[in-house]
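User: Could you check the structure of this?
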Amino acid sequence: MKLILHPGLHKTGSTYLQHVLNDNHAQLAARGVWYQPQEGYPAHHHACWQVLTGSPDPLVDMARQARAADCDTLLFSSEDLEGALYDDRPLAAIAEAMQVAGIDTVEWHLVLREPGAAFASLFAQLQHHVYADAFQLFYDVMHRGFIHMTEPMPGKGTPYWYYAFDHAAELERLAESTEAPVFAHDFAAQAPFPGAGLLGHLGILDAVHRLPGEAARNARPSSDEVVQGFAARVEEAVPDEAAQAQIVDGFLTCMRNGLESVPSYASIIGKAYAQSHAEALKVFAPEEHAVA
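Assistant: Sure, the predicted C-alpha cells are below.
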C-alpha cells in the first residue's frame, strides 16, 4: 500500500481540495485511492492531532479501511500535519504505521504559496481561533523562518500550530528526515483548483465528477470581520466588561496598526523568502512539472 501525505501548507487552498476529496470519495475509491470520508469538515484534523503527538493509530485504522475497500493507496490530508516539517514525533508515528499496517511507500505532497501572500492570509485567518499580533508574527517569520504556537486552543484540538515560510530549508529537512519522496506543487499554477496537481500526479483528476461551490473556499475575511474576530477572542480571554473597557482603546490601536502594516510585512516577507520559495518549487517539483 502507498500512503500519500498532504500537509497543506496552510493557506494554499487545502480546504477546497479536501472538499473535493470528500465529495468524490466513492469515485476515488473506485480508482483505488482511499480518502477517509469525514462528516462536516472534510479534513483529517482529528486524526492528525493524534499523529502529531506520536500515535500511529489513526493511520493504521485508515489503512485497514482502505484495504477493506480494495484500495491500494491511502490519501491523508490535514494542514496541521505541517508540523512534521519541524517535529520528529509525527515522522515516528508515520514510520510505525508503515510497519504495523504494511504500508510500503510514502509520498509527501505540499502546495507552496508565495510567502508574503501566505502571511497576509494567515493573519486574517487566525482571528477565527486565537488573538495574534501582526508585528509579533512578522518578527517570528523574519527571525526564525516560521511561526510556532503551542497549544493554541487548550483542550480543544491540535497540540500546536506550525507555519513554514523558508520553504527550501523546510522541505530539505523533511526529505532528509523521512527519506521519502517530497513533492512541491505551486499554488499559483494549479488548475482547476489549488492541489489539483496532486490528483494529476496520482492520475485520478478525471475521477473528480463534482466540484464544491464557493462556500468550500476558506476565503479571506474582510478587514471589519478580522477586527470583529480578534475582538471576540479578546472578549473570551477577558470576559469582565469593566476590564474590557480599560483595554478597548489599546486593542483598537493594535488592530488598526496591524491591519495597516500587514501589506508592508507581507512585502518584506515575500522578498526575504522569494529565493527559498522558488528553489523549493524547482528542486521538489513533480517530474511532470520539473523545470530543467
